[in-house]
Known about the structure:
The protein is of the alpha+beta class.
Amino acid sequence: xxxxxxxxxxxxxxxxxxxxxxxxxxxxxxxxxxxxxxxxxxxxxxxxxxxxxxxxxxxxxxxxxxxxxxxxxxxxxxxxxxxxxxxxxxxxxxxxxxxxxxxxxxxxxxxxxxxxxxxxxxxxxxxxxxxxxxxxxxxxxxxxxxxxxxxxxxxxxxxxxxxxxxxxxxxxxxxxxxxxxxxxxxxxxx
Length: 190
């Protein structure tokens, strides 16, 4: 992969389950850490519009042609609004990578989905659609799932876009901006 590739990091804002919508921010970063643009959309808390909302935000952006990879903070936005990363990849013809710090408790996820959603099987299938793989970082390993690039290319991209800690700058910046827009300032770890 070329140096200074443009990566769109995506994260949702803090929300409460009393909220009907959640802000989603995309931070377009030229690796390793040059912020070039921001974009936003909203999705329904615990809804099913996350995949379409993400595709629409990106495809309608004037920066669309500059984006080479999409990185998501996890596979869901706004609670259990689970993203179909294969559909995002196929719609936009872009590689997609999800990143999480800690191993998910799939049994707890299945149980929560089953308790709250009639379509729990479909949502859980999206959560498990691509296998999570361990990815080394300079600190502790993270877990990631991706489509559209060779695994070693994803590893190189994460390494080249992580300035400090374990979270790549595109996701970290999206997290900071979304939190500030929703709460007035950013805080907490990305």
